[in-house]
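Box 4.2: Ligand-aware structure prediction
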Amino acid sequence: MRPEASDLFVALPDDDLPAYVYDLPDLREHVRTIRAALPERVELLYAAKANSDPGILRTLAGHVHGFEVASGGELDHVRAIVPDAPIAFGGPGKTQQELTRALSAGAERLHIESEHELRLLTTLLGDRTVEVLLRVNLPVDVGRVALAMGGGPFGMDPVRLDRCLKVMESAPGVRLRGLHLHLASGLQAQSHLRLVDKILGWAEKWARDRGIDLREVNVGGGMGVDYASPPAVFDWAALGAGLRRILARHPHLTLRIEPGRSVTAYCGWYVTEVLDIKFSRGHAFAVLRG
Ligand SMILES: *Cc1c(COP(=O)(O)O)cnc(C)c1O
């Protein structure tokens, strides 16, 4: 924390609390460090759901390749704040209206969550073209501290992908650029690298077996933030070095990552006021404004 930050918190009027306070110069520095740690063939997107405050989006624009959004509202919001930034639209349950908005807003990528969603997209496309990633729910073991996203409503089981390929055969405007696999959350760098290695190995084989020209794989976000120990910042240098080694074995791929919390969390504070401290049955409770 910068020394002047705590002074600022104390000076905040009670009526302004609770507040999220972000150090934007610090955020700019942090995203620059992340970008510098990553190899060139890694495109960095920011997952807007982590915090889509206009000041944060504007600070990140120019240092990230683009923004990942998960709803029509988020898409409109990001478009309005950073009009020129590429947008990737992901997440299950996209409505017809949201897909139509994404097409007319010129979303750079759509992350397709199911065969149904793909079919819906083909009916809305007209003579436009759109680049898509199919989101896959690959069963992988991510270890005990991480939160696995697999096995839920996110993406498709691998066996379902062939049906999507079939649908795309008769929809030339839908261009398959690659695959999307956001499989876990809360991973430290070495576990993340093991996961990326598995994902890319699997994805390349999947594409090779089908004669598909796989150009891009998005491995999602989920870089761990240790909330109990904020100074232990996620090791981007280790991640970048490991990704460079892995990508050397995949010379034709562009890798995308879309971290959220690990980009912003270290540069902000939740500021509130302790209104009371109570003791009950051996425990102390801080009662907060909020
Ligand atoms: C939540 C989410 C992210 C960002 O996750 P973090 O843990 O905040 O990095 C990225 N991609 C998708 C698809 C998500 O749902």
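In the box above, the bound molecule is pyridoxal-5'-phosphate. The first helix runs from residue 3 to 11.
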